[in-house]
Amino acid sequence: MKVFFLLFIGVITYSCGGSTAVYYPKPKGYERIDLPEHRYQTLEGSYPYTFEYSESAVITPDKSKDAEPNWILVEYPKLNAKVQFTYKPLYGDLQKLDKHVADAYKLASKHQVRATSQKEQVIKLENGKSVVVIELEGEVPSHYQFYATDTSKHFLRGAVYLNSATFGDSLRPIVDFLKIDSRHILETLKWKN
């Protein structure tokens, strides 16, 4: 019996000390995000503008308390995100244009409290139009904002909003997807009348 007991202790001791494998904790992971394909359809309706938007999005009127006619939301239900469009007629008034441009920068600057950086640039599109794009980095609800105008009749501002937690690393694929879609919207933007 003593031999059996010593043999048992020897086997246990050998099995516990013979391993040289080193184990590391797994890094924090994020859930998988399946992004839809970039396929587009034309905006229908009596808006003073038109563009192509994603087939995975739906158009709804903006029902916020300050919403005006021709304000819409391009909502992405599967991504829990949206692009809010605010339209302002200019009627040839350059002071209105200046005010709307200043408002666009003011709205973007509200995110500076949590933003780690803000980059503004004028982009010349393939369609010949120029637009202003404001990109924000950090834990902000809107990473991408832009506006387009013909400087005499139309002013359209867009802001991409994420309806979920704003952790940049985990949502980067969605932000990048929405940037591509927003760029396509701007490339296909046309003013009516």
What is the straight-line distance between the termini?
101 Å
The overall pLDDT average reads 86
The spatial strand order of the largest sheet comes to 4-5-6-10-9-8-7
Number of strands: 11
**What's the total helix number?**
3
Relative strand content: 25-35%
Question: Structural class from helices and strands?
Answer: alpha+beta
Radius of gyration: 26 Å
Catalogue the unreliable spans: none
Oligomer: single chain
The string of secondary-structure elements, in order, is HEEEEEEHEEEEHE
| Approximate shape | elongated
Overall helicity:
25-40%
Largest sheet: 7 strands, antiparallel
What does this protein structure show overall?
The protein has 193 residues and is of the alpha+beta class. The chain contains 3 helices and 11 strands; from the N terminus they run H-E-E-E-E-E-E-H-E-E-E-E-H-E. Helices cover 27% and strands 32% of the residues. Strands 4-5-6-10-9-8-7 form a 7-stranded antiparallel β-sheet, with helices on both faces. It has helices spanning 2-17, 94-109, 168-188, and strands at 40-42, 49-50, 52-54, 58-61, 72-76, 81-89, 115-124, 130-138, 144-149, 154-162, 190-191. A hairpin with a 4-residue loop joins strand 5 (72-76) and strand 6 (81-89).
Helices and strands in order, then pairings?
Layout: H1 2-17, E1 40-42, E2 49-50, E3 52-54, E4 58-61, E5 72-76, E6 81-89, H2 94-109, E7 115-124, E8 130-138, E9 144-149, E10 154-162, H3 168-188, E11 190-191
